[in-house]
């Protein structure tokens, strides 16, 4: 059984709200590298016949794909983890230089209760890296604000043709427990 066969498995309320917002704002393509923090949202989108999904091998592929989809009249959102932002820095000049909208939903690592030390450096630098690359960033720390922030980011990007990132706090994706005490 594929990870997206059961949309209720590990789906958090904020993921349901983000999915509903994609539907309401007519996002019809979701691009992602598999990520545990986005798993429930990915499942919801993959099981929706009105939303196409593309699995990437590396996040930077999604920047070009998103640009091509927009040029073909399709609204997309690119899902990634904060460590993936570093993989895309050079490519982030494409949407800015061509005035193309780009929407990222970034699950943050290296924050609250991080257990992988190598996630901390990029997690700490993700907001600044995105801002240096011309992104407008919005922080999502409260599940109840998901619809408002995600819809605002989507509208902001597509109406103003800008790069926008929603940074989803590590507390929102849930504390990982690997049995370490």
How would you sum up this structure in a few lines?
It contains 8 helices and 6 strands, in the order H-E-H-E-H-E-H-H-E-H-E-H-E-H. The protein is an alpha/beta fold.
Helix content: 40-55%
> Per CATH, which architecture?
3-Layer(aba) Sandwich
Mean pLDDT across every amino acid position: 92
The main pleated sheet reads as: 6 strands, parallel
Computed Rg: 15 Å
Instruction: Give me the CATH fold name.
Output: Rossmann fold
The domain tally reads 1
Can you give keywords for this protein?
disordered N terminus; alpha/beta; globular; 6-stranded parallel sheet; Rossmann fold; 181 residues; 8 helices; 43% helix
List the helices and strands and how they pair.
Layout: H1 13-24, E1 29-32, H2 39-46, E2 52-55, H3 60-71, E3 76-81, H4 82-88, H5 93-98, E4 102-107, H6 120-132, E5 136-140, H7 146-160, E6 163-168, H8 170-173
Parallel strand pairs: 1-2, 1-3, 3-4, 4-6, 5-6
Helix pairs in contact: 1-2, 1-7, 4-6
Description:
- It is a single chain.
- The protein is of the alpha/beta class and 181 residues long.
- It has a single domain, classed as Thiamin diphosphate (ThDP)-binding fold, Pyr/PP domains (Rossmann fold).
- It has eight helices and six strands, in the order αβαβαβααβαβαβα.
- Strands 2-1-3-4-6-5 form a six-stranded parallel beta sheet, sandwiched between helices.
- Helix 2 (39-46) links the parallel strand 1 (29-32) and strand 2.
- Helix 1 (13-24) packs parallel to helix 7 (146-160) and helix 4 crosses helix 6 (120-132).
- It is globular, with a radius of gyration of 15 Å.
- The model is unreliable at 1-8 (pLDDT under 50).
């Amino acid at each position: 059984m594929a990870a997206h066969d059961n949309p209720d498995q590990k789906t958090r309320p904020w993921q349901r709200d983000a999915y509903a917002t994609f539907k309401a704002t007519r996002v019809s393509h979701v691009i992602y590298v598999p990520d545990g923090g986005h798993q429930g949202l990915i499942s919801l989108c993959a099981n929706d016949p009105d939303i196409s999904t593309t699995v990437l091998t590396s996040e930077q592929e999604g920047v070009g794909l998103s640009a091509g989809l927009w040029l073909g009249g399709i609204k997309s959102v690119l899902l990634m983890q904060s460590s993936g932002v570093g993989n895309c820095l050079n490519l982030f000049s494409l949407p800015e230089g061509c005035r193309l909208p780009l929407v990222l939903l970034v699950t943050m690592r290296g924050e609250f209760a991080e257990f992988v030390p190598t996630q901390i450096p990029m997690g700490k630098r993700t907001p600044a890296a995105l801002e240096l690359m011309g992104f407008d960033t919005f922080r999502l720390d409260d599940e109840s604000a998901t619809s408002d922030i995600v819809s605002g980011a989507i509208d902001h990007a597509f109406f103003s043709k800008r790069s926008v990132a929603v940074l989803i706090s590590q507390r929102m994706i849930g504390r990982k427990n690997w049995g370490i005490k």
